[in-house]
Design brief:
Rossmann fold; 5-stranded mixed beta sheet; 135 residues; 5 strands; alpha/beta
Length: 135
């Protein structure tokens, strides 16, 4: 799974319209979220750092919910944007999440177990488990 890391609002206009998952590494305004949704109509998940999530308006959260876009809190630990514009979740981590979810573990249990071996946030792990089991 690849997550496009966006570190500045100027990058939104250059995004691939097929992006489905993004991480915003800057404090986005409502206009930035709207521009992002307009540029990427297939968008399904936006991840922002916890401190940015607290300052987000309720109006844009409701709009994201109406569009079916999930808003997650989390960071992309250890990612260097100068080396790659995508943060990649390891295949072994994805397999571990899928096997735990398929084995009947709750999403919270899956998140706590996978966090022991990876540097992924709990919300991202739950999102992956949920989308893989429903897909």
């Amino acid at each position: 799974m690849r997550i496009r890391v966006i570190s500045a609002r100027s990058e939104i206009t250059n995004l691939n319209p097929n992006e489905k998952t993004v991480h915003l590494a800057f404090r986005a305004s409502n206009v930035d979220y709207l521009n992002l949704m307009q540029r990427c109509p297939r968008l399904r998940m936006i991840q922002v750092p916890p401190s940015y999530r607290k300052t987000m308006s309720n109006a844009i959260q409701v709009f994201l919910d109406m569009q079916g876009i999930e808003m997650l809190e989390g960071d992309v630990w250890g990612h260097r944007k100068d080396l790659d514009e995508y943060f990649t979740v390891d295949e072994s981590t994805l397999q571990e999440i899928n096997s735990l979810a398929a084995g009947g573990a709750t999403f919270d249990d899956v998140a706590s177990e996978v966090q022991k071996t990876s540097r992924l946030g709990a919300e991202l792990i739950k999102y992956i488990a949920k989308t893989k089991t429903t897909a």
